Amino acid sequence: MEAVPRMPMIWLDLKEAGDLFLLLSTLQSAVNVPRDFEGCSTLRKYFGQLHYLQSRIPMGAEQEAAVPIAWTEIFSGKTVTHEDIKYEQACILYNLGALHSMLGAMDKRVSEECAAGAFTYLRDHFPHSYSVDMSHQILNLNINLMLGQAQECLLEKSMLDNRKSFLVARISAQVVDYYKEACRALENSETASLLGKIQKDWKKLVQMKIYYFAAVAHLHMGKQAEEQQKFGERVIYFQSALDKLNEAIKLAKGQPETVQEALRFTMDVIGGKYNSAKKDNDFIYHEAVPALDTLQSVKGAPLVKALPVNPTDPAVTGPDIFAKLVPMAAHEASSLYSEEKAKLLRDVMAKIEAKNEVLDQFMDSMQLDPETVDNLEMYSHIPPVLMEKCAALSVRPDTVKNLVQSMQVLSGVFTDVEASLKEIRDLLEEDEAQERKLQELLGKVPPAQGSPPPPSPGLAEVSKECSKYMEVHEKASFTNTELHKAMNLHVGNLRLLSGPLEQVRAALPSPALTEDDKQVLQNLKRILAKVQEMRDQRMSLEQQLREMIQKDDITTSLVTTDRSEMKKLFEEQLKKYDQIKVYLEQNLAAQENVLKALTDANVKYATVRKALAEVEHKWNTTVQTLVASYEAYEDLMKKSQEGKDFYTDLEGKAAKLLEKARAACQAAEANRQQILEKEMKKQPPPRPTAPKPALQKKPPELEAAGLDTGDLPLPLGSLVLPELPEELRSL
C-alpha cells in the first residue's frame, strides 16, 4: 500500500507492590519505575538480584526465612499475599513484560518481543497459582498478543521498505496466526472469567485484526499474482481481500476513529485494486478465475521471537550483591540439576514437536475441519442475507410488476423509433432508385456503371440526419438488448424472493445423502474426535511435565549432600519424571495408528466430500445469484427509465425527420416529372406513313394512365412512342 495505516495495540497495566523490607532502595526504584526503557533496566536489575537472593537464602514457600510479599492483582485490584520470594520475582517479571508492552504500543513500535520474552520466562519458570493475572492461560494469551503485535510492527516496516509481495503476505499471515491463538484463549470460558470486563474489548479488537491482516495478506498475494501475470488468481485474491476487509469493518463498530480511518484507507486501496483487476480480466485477459480454496494457502513466516530473559547476566543485573551469603557449591549443584531438568524437557519437547509437525502437515493436507466436515446445518434454513432481501421485497409487492411494465414501455418506444427510421430509410432508397432510373433514361449514366446520383439538398440533409440517428439507435439498441437480457435474468429471481419463504427454501440446493454416506461421515467425525483427544492429552501431559519441573527444587537436599553423591542424587530425583514420560511416549506412538485410520476414513469420505462440496458450491452460487438479482433491481429500474427518456426524445426527432423526408421526396418526384415532360417535348414527331384511321386504339401507356390523346398538348396528342423504354412508361 502507498502508506501504512496503523492499528491500535493492546498494552498491560503494571502491578502495584506492597511493603517489603529487603532491598529497599532497589525495591523503591522497581515499584515506582519510570515508563521508559530506563524503567525496564531497573526491573531487570532488581529481578536478577532477587534471583541471586533466593538461590542463597531459604525465602521460598514454607521456608525458614520466608516473608509476606503483597502485590495487587491486575484484573480485580485485590491485594494478593504469598510468603515466597519467587512471588516477588514473578511480579517483577510480569511488570517487565507489561512495561515493554506499553513501550511497544507507542509510536516507535518497538519492544514487543521483549514483552513476549518476559511473559514466556514467567510462564516456563514460575508457578501459575500465585494470582489470576499470572495464570497459565493469561500468560499464554499475553505471549501470543505480544508476538502478534511484534509481527505487526515487522509487517509495517516490511511494507514501508517495499519488500517483496509474497514475503509481506507471509508476514501478514503470521500476524493472523498469532492473533488466532490469542483469540482462542480469549474465547476460552475460563480465560474470559479471569479477564472480566476487558475480555470483550480485547476479543473484539483481536477478531477485527484477524480479518484485517488476512485482507492485507491476500492483497499482497494478489499483487504477487499480478507480478506473475496470473490475472485470474489476481482477481480472486483481491476479491478475498475485499471480503475479509468487509468483515473487519463489521467488527470495527465502536472502535476509535483512527481504526475507522485505517479501514477506510485500506478499503480505498483494496477496492481500487479489485475493480481494476476485474475490469482488466473481463475485457482484456479473459482468464478463468479459480476458486480460492484451489489455491495454495498463505503460510505464515514467524520472523519474531520471544527474546530470552537471563537473570544471571551481569551486563543486566550488575554484580551479585549476595555472593557471600550462600555456598557456591550448593548454588552450582542446583544449577547443574536445573540443566539436567532442562535437558530432559528439551528431549521430550523435541519428540513432541516432531510428532506435532507431522500431525499438522497431515491435517493440513487433509483439509478436514471436525466442526464443518459435513456442514449439513447450513442447508436447514435460509441464510440471513437472503432473509433480509425477502423481508425487503415483502413490503414492496409490486417490484416485479413495475419492472416488467417499465421494460414494456421501453420496448414500445424502441419499436416506434425503429419503425420511423426504417420508413425514412425506405423513402430515401426509393427516391434514389427513381432518380437512377431517370438518369439512365436520359442517357446521362450508364445503367451498369452509374454511381448514385447526388440527392437534392433537402434529401441530402435528411440522409445525413437519418445516418446520425441510425448510428445512435444502433448503439443504444445493444444497450437495450443487454438491459432486456438482464431483466430476463433477474425477474424470475425477484418473483421467487417476493414469494413464500417455503419456495425460497425449496429453490436452495441441499445434499441428498444415503445411509451409507451418513455412516461414512459419522466414522470420520469419530476419528477426528480421536485426533483432537490425542492433541489435548499431549498438551495436558506437556503442561504437567513443565509444572513438575518448575516446582522441582532440591536446594535443601543439595546443601546436605556430599559433592561425590550429587550425580546419584540427580538420577534418583529425575526418576520422578519416568511415569509422565511413559504416558507421553504412548501418546506419541498412538499417532501412527490414528492417522492410518483417518487416512482410510478419508478415502471413503472422498466421494461424499465431493458431492457435499458441489452442493455447497451450488448453494452459495444460488444465494449469491438471488442476492445479486435483488441488488440489480434498482439499477434496472433506473436504466429502463433512462432508456425511455432517451427513446422518447429520439422518437420525437425521428417523427419530425420522417415528415421532412416525405416532403423532400415529394418535391424530388415532382421535379423528376417536370424533367421527363421536357424531355418528351424535345422528341421529333415521326414521319406519317398513312392517313390516320378514324378509330385508333389508345397507346398502352396512356390507357394505363387513364388519359385520352385529346388530353395531351397538340404536338403530343398524335405522338406514338413505340421506342420508349418500359422504365420511362412507369414514371
TrEMBL record:
Origin: domain of life: Eukaryota
GO cellular component, one term: endosome
GO biological process, one term: protein transport to vacuole involved in ubiquitin-dependent protein catabolic process via the multivesicular body sorting pathway
PROSITE patterns (UniProt xref): BRO1
Biased composition (Low complexity): 706-718
Coiled-coil parts of chain: 414-444, 524-551
Residue ranges, annotated region (Disordered): 672-718
Boundaries of every BRO1 domain copy: 28-359
Keyword set, alphabetical order: Coiled coil, Cytoplasm, Endosome
Pfam families reported for this sequence: ALIX_LYPXL_bnd (PF13949), BRO1 (PF03097)
Claim: Translocase is one of the keywords in the record: no
Location(s) in or outside the cell: Cytoplasm; Endosome
Keyword Flavoprotein: no
Protein name in UniProt: PTN23 phosphatase
